[in-house]
Amino acid sequence: MTTIATTASDSGSAAGDTLARNALAVLQPGFDGTTAPDWVRRRIGEGLASVALFGRNVVSEEQVTSLTAGLRAERDDLLVAIDEESGDVTRLDVRTGSSFPGNHALGAVDDPGLTRAVSRELGRRLAACGVNFDWAPSADVNANPDNPVIGVRSFGASPDKVARHTAAWVEGLQSTGVAACTKHFPGHGDTNVDSHHAVPRIDVDADTLYERELPPFRAAIAAGTRAIMSAHILVPALDPDRPGTLSRRVLTDLLRGELGYQGLIVTDGMEMRAISGTYGLEHGVVLAIAAGADAICVGGGLCDENTVLGLRDALVAAVRSGELPEERLADAAARVRDLAAWTAAARGDAGKTAADPEIGLVAARRALRVTRSGTARPLTGPVHVAQFNPAPNIAVGDQTPWGVATELERLLPGTDSASFSGEGAGAAALAAAGGRRIVAVVRDEHRHDWMRSALDTLLAARPDTVVVEMGLPQAAPRGALHIATYGAARVCGVAAAEAVLAG
C-alpha cells in the first residue's frame, strides 16, 4: 500500500483537502468504547460522515443516546449505523436478547402489516437513541436450509414472501426517519459457506437468479430503501471473476443500471475473509469503490484510528495513481452526504411514531408452531432445561443469551438448566436432569448430527421430553410437545416458555 504522508501535508492544496475529505466520507468505521473517542471526533471534523456501532459499544439505551449525542456535537448530520436486524442478530439488545422476533418468525406469520409494525417500533427505538442508519433488513431468500450464516435471518424460502416482507420492513423502519439498508445483494441465501470465512459461490443460471434472488431487492427499491448492502459472494452468472462487492457488473451494471437503483450502496464488512483474505483490506476497499460501492463498512474487528487512516490514504493514493477515478470517489462521497442530509431532515419523524412496546412479544406468540404427540401431558412442577448449543456464527456472535431457561425458571420456581454440546450431550443431559421432566432446547437440529443424536438419546429414555426448536424448523417435530419459534430472540423464548406451560 502506498502511504500518503498525511492530510496535513496537503493543507495548502484545496484539491488535496477535498480528496482526503471524500476518502474519509465513504468510510463507516467502528470504534472501541461506550463513549465517543477523541480520534473519532477529530476525524469527523476532517470529513468522516459516518460511524458504526457494534455490540461492544452498547450497554443501555441511555448510554447509546449519550454516545450519539457526543458524536453529533461534532457533526449534526452524522450517520450513525448499526447492525440491528432484530431476532438473532441484535446489537441494541446484545446483552439480553432482542425484544423483537427476527425475519423468519415474521415470515412464518406472513402478515406484512405485523412486519411493518415491528420494524416501525424498532425504528422508533433506534431513532430515540440517536441511531439513524440500520444495516437491515436481510432480503436473502433462504434457498439452502444448510446455509451457515443466513437461516432465520431470512423471511423464508419463497421469493414472493421475502419480497413483500422486505418491502414492509423497509417501509416501517423508514417511517421513523431511520434509513434501511437492504442486504445482501445480489442474494446470500443459496450459499453453504459463510463469507466471514471465505468466498461463497452461487452456481445458478441467470434465469434462476432473476426469478429467485432479485425479487426482494426489486421490492425494496420500489419501497424506497435508502441503502443496499453488497454481498461478498461470487456469482459466475453475473461475474465469473470478482465477488459482488468488488464487481462493476453487479453493482453498477445490474443494481444501478438494470434495476434503476439510485440510493447508497454499502459494502458488507470489509474485514471479512472473503475480501481481506483474498484481496487485502486496503486494495479491496479501492476495488469496491471503483466497482460502484459508495460506503465502506469496516470496524466489526478492526476498529482503531490507524485502520481508518490507512484506508483513507489507500483511496487517496488510488486516485493519484489513476487506479480510482476521482469523480467516482466524489460521487460516492456525495451519496453518503445525501443520505446524511435525508436522515437529518427526517429526524423528527420518530417523535410522531406512537410507542408499541408489546408488538415484539405479540409477533413472537403469533409465530409459534406447536405440535403435540400422544405422550403430551401438563407440567406439574420444576423441570430441567437442557440447552444444546451449536457454535455461534459470527453475524450472531456469542454475547447474546438465548433459550427458554430464564423464563421457565421464573414461571416454574425450582427449575434448573445446563448447556451441552458435542458427542455425549444427550447422556450428559439425562444425568443432569435426574428425575425431572426435561425441556430440550435446540437450534437448527437438522444441521448438527451431534444434536440430533442427543435428542435421540433423550427421547428414547424420556419420551415425555418437550423439544423447543429455536432455529430453522427443518427437522420433523418430535417429543411430547414440539415448539418451533422460528428464531432465538428473547421474546421468542418468552413465548415458547408460555407454550411449554400451556402444554
Account of the 3D structure:
- Helix 4 packs across helix 14 (359-367).
- Helix 15 links the parallel strand 10 and strand 11 (416-420).
- This protein has helices spanning 14-25, 38-45, 61-72, 103-109, 112-128, 159-174, 206-213, 215-222, 248-258, 273-276, 281-291, 305-321, 326-345, 359-367, 405-411, 425-433, 449-461, 490-502, and strands spanning 27-29, 50-53, 79-82, 133-134, 179-185, 227-230, 264-266, 296-298, 369-372, 383-388, 416-420, 437-442, 466-469, 481-484.
- Strands 2-3-4-5-6-7 form a six-stranded parallel beta sheet. A six-stranded mixed beta sheet has the order 9-14-13-12-10-11, with helices on both faces. It has a two-stranded parallel ribbon with strand order 1-8.
- Helix content is 40%, strand content 12%.
- The protein is α/β, with parallel strands linked by helices.
- Residues 1-12 have low confidence and may be disordered.
Compact description:
With 503 residues, the chain is α/β, with parallel strands linked by helices. The protein is built from 18 helices and 14 strands.
SSE map:
Elements lengths: L13 H12 L1 E3 L8 H8 L4 E4 L7 H12 L6 E4 L20 H7 L2 H17 L4 E2 L24 H16 L4 E7 L20 H8 L1 H8 L4 E4 L17 H11 L5 E3 L6 H4 L4 H11 L4 E3 L6 H17 L4 H20 L13 H9 L1 E4 L10 E6 L16 H7 L4 E5 L4 H9 L3 E6 L6 H13 L4 E4 L11 E4 L5 H13 L1
Parallel strand pairs: 1-8, 2-3, 3-4, 4-5, 5-6, 6-7, 10-11, 10-12, 12-13, 13-14
Antiparallel strand pairs: 9-14
Helix pairs in contact: 1-12, 1-13, 4-14, 5-6, 6-8, 11-12, 14-18, 15-18, 16-17
